[in-house]
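Section 3.1: Structural characterization of target chains.
Under the original work plan, the team committed to producing a structural model for every single-chain target entering the pipeline before any wet-lab resources were allocated. The record below documents one such target. The sequence was received from the expression subgroup and is listed exactly as submitted; it comprises 82 residues.
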Amino acid sequence: MSVDVTLLPATIPPRLAEEDIDRIRRFEDRTAGEQLRFEYSVPPSGALVVWRLSDPNLTPEVEAVFGPAAWEEVQGDLHRPL
């Protein structure tokens, strides 16, 4: 499953707030060609970490980090480190 992050309205710069800005950031899994999966975790700090898993045998890499005051909702698969 892909990871969808909904950002808080306060994260949108004031000059863009009047426009119809999509607050959802999508990290989409890919199965054609390059195998790519995304998962998320929320450490005790409250930050949201989106992980990129390109190969089950490789170490997951951080794709994005959102501070605790930047995101409001997340949907997707939870990252479970080995």
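The helical segments are 14-17.
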